[in-house]
Amino acid sequence: MSWRCGKAYAQDLRDRVLAAKGRLRVVAERFGVSQAYVSRVRSRHERLGQASAGAQHNHVPLRLAGLKAPLLAQVALAPEQTLVQLCQ
Question: With helix as H, strand as E and coil as C, how does 10-29 read?
Fold first, then answer.
C-alpha cells in the first residue's frame, strides 16, 4: 500500500494490523505499512480502546466563518430561493 495524503487507511486494514501478533517490523512488512503506523494503531487501541481512526483536523479557520450569521439570516428571509438566486 502506498501512502495517501490526508486519508486514513481502511478499517479492515486497521483490524488486521490489530489482530496480527508479532514485532512491529514484521507486521508492517506483512501489510505494507510503516512501523510507525502499526505502533500508533496499537497505542490508540491500548490507550482508548478504539480500533477506529480518530477525527482528522486541519486547524485552518473557515473563510466564511465571520459571515455565517448574516448568510443564514439572508437564507431565512427567502428559503425557497435557489443558490443562484441567493448569490445575485
Answer: CHHHHHHHHHCCCCHHHHHH
CA pair distance 16, 31, nearest whole angstrom:
8
**Cβ of 51: how many Cβ atoms within 10 Å?**
14
Nearest C-alpha neighbor of 3 from the set 32, 43, 42:
32
Sign of CA dihedral 65, 68, 70, 74: positive
Residue 32 φ then ψ, to 5°: 70, 35
Structure confidence at residue 53 as a pLDDT band (50, 70, 90)? confident
Whichever domain contains 10, its CATH number is 1.10.10.10
Which residue range(s) make up the domain with 6?
A: 1-55
pTM of the model: 0.58
Q: How many domains does the chain have?
A: 1
